[in-house]
Amino acid sequence: MGKVNDILIVCGVELDTPYGHILVYMDEPDEKILQINNLNELLDYSKEHEYLTSIAHPYGNFLILPFPILKKKELIDKIDAIEIINGRVPNRGNTLAYELAVSLSKYFTGGSDAHLLSEVGNVGLMCYENIDSFDDLINLIKHGKAKPYGKVRTYKAIAGILKTSLLKPSRLLHRWLKY
Question: How buried is 110 (Cβ within 10 angstroms: 0-12 exposed, 13-18 middle, 19+ buried)?
Fold first, then answer.
């Protein structure tokens, strides 16, 4: 997408799969991503188009439980990165995600996972060099020159989840029935 007012805009989507949530970062909007129903196909498609894929909050299933993808080596091998800091996951889940990323030699990503305005910007990505393009950003991530940062307060993470769940009770019920 490029820069707007000297700020790089990166397209991304968090997809809910039977194995967990997958983040896909891309340089331009790609509607086809939303139509792919098979995780293997999604990961192959993302590789073909040089998108960056990341497991979102791998230990954020009902706060700190692991998502099923962690038991699927063939899927993990295709993933580029792991979200090591998520603004809606308690610190213990983020620590486990970091340890997983290190043990698997995966790149690091992080995100606020904001569902409420007050959560926007709680987590970010610190880049240690200027970036002018999507490719610059991906290169910094791949060379360890872009690090997730942020502090998660467990009680605020839980309160935010409860608040949004109470606002949309059918969503919480759907999640419980789905797994």
Answer: buried
Q: Which domain holds residue 156?
A: 2-178
Token readout for 115 is: 């569902």
**Global pTM value:** 0.83
Neighbours of 63 (CB within 10 A): 16
Contact predicate 4/37, CB 8 Å: no
pLDDT tens digits for 108-145?
Answer: 999 988 777 888 888 999 999 988 999 999 999 999 99
CATH code assigned at 62? 3.20.20.140
Query: Could you read off the pLDDT of 139-169 as tens digits, one per residue?
Result: 999 999 999 999 776 656 666 656 655 555 5
How many domains does the structure of the chain reveal?
A: 1
